[in-house]
Write a structure and sequence with these properties.
Helices cover 29% and strands 19% of the residues. The longest helix is centred in the first third of the chain and has 24 residues. The protein is globular and about 55 Å long.
């Protein structure tokens, strides 16, 4: 006779459905943004960022539809962003800066504007070289150029909040009614401290058309960035001749990295 079958394995101490059950607010985000499968097992924090990005985009659509008395198609940018397959989550590690960099206003990350759609950032974490969490230095962090008076303003983000930044392509596609902001990261004068943050860059599909809407502001206003920091390439020169988003992105990479080879 055949040998008896082996005994069944012992039950798992944490059944998968219970071990990876997403919190209620994660499930709500997933329902509102079906493309973002938000759970502690799969996408985690980037899933939350993705869901927030979609909801913010829906608010922009409502704002523009109201502002233009219905000329802006309802849900246009939300649909464009959800078609995208190029969202990028990047865990950004800023190494301890040398003393020379600490003197610069943008010692950790130079002045620039994001060129894509929406960027979602977590609150930064500061660590010692041994990996111990450190208090946030008063002189370090994200700084922006105030669009009204040009002052450099430090952005302070509470630990339980996310930061949303708009990219230049959003500025252009909205006809200048939504604006990107120049920003940089200032290094800390405190030695041997690192800065950590998680950024999610939400972009359009490469073949999306870069066309001004019917309700656009004058072209000169759309492409103008007040108080543009020295060394930052102007939007007008990079948008020129860009028929699709891939063209604009390529022009941007070439403008920022003039000595690097950029492939289309």
């Amino acid at each position: 006779p055949p040998p008896p079958p082996p005994p069944p394995p012992p039950p798992h101490p944490h059944p998968p459905q219970q071990a990876h059950q997403a919190p209620a607010h994660h499930q709500q985000l997933a329902q509102q943004a079906p493309q973002a499968v938000v759970s502690t097992q799969s996408t985690g924090m980037t899933g939350i960022q993705l869901g927030v990005g979609y909801m913010i985009c829906e608010l922009f659509d409502r704002y523009l539809t109201t502002l233009t008395n219905g000329v802006h198609p309802a849900g246009r940018f939300s649909e464009m962003l959800k078609r995208g397959t190029t969202c990028k989550g990047r865990l950004l590690h800023y190494f301890p800066a040398p003393p020379s960099a600490c003197k610069a206003e943008d010692g950790l990350c130079g002045w620039h504007l994001d060129h894509g759609g929406i960027t979602i950032l977590t609150c930064p974490l500061y660590l010692s070289l041994e990996g111990e969490e450190m208090p946030a230095p008063a002189d370090c962090g994200l700084h922006i150029k105030h669009p009204v008076d040009g002052d450099v303003v430090k952005v302070t983000l509470p630990p339980d909040c996310l930061l949303v930044q708009l990219g230049e392509s959003f500025q252009y596609l909205s006809g200048g009614h939504l604006r990107a902001t120049a920003h940089c990261v200032k290094s800390s004068k405190t030695p041997n401290i690192t800065r950590e943050t998680l950024a999610l860059f939400m972009d359009w599909m490469p073949e999306e058309d870069m066309q001004l809407p019917e309700y656009t502001r004058p072209f000169s206003e759309v492409v103008h960035t007040p108080f543009l920091p020295p060394g930052v390439p102007e939007l007008e020169g990079r948008i020129k001749g860009a028929k699709h988003y891939r063209d604009f992105a390529t022009n941007t990479f070439r403008a920022y990295y003039a000595d690097a080879e950029v492939e289309k």
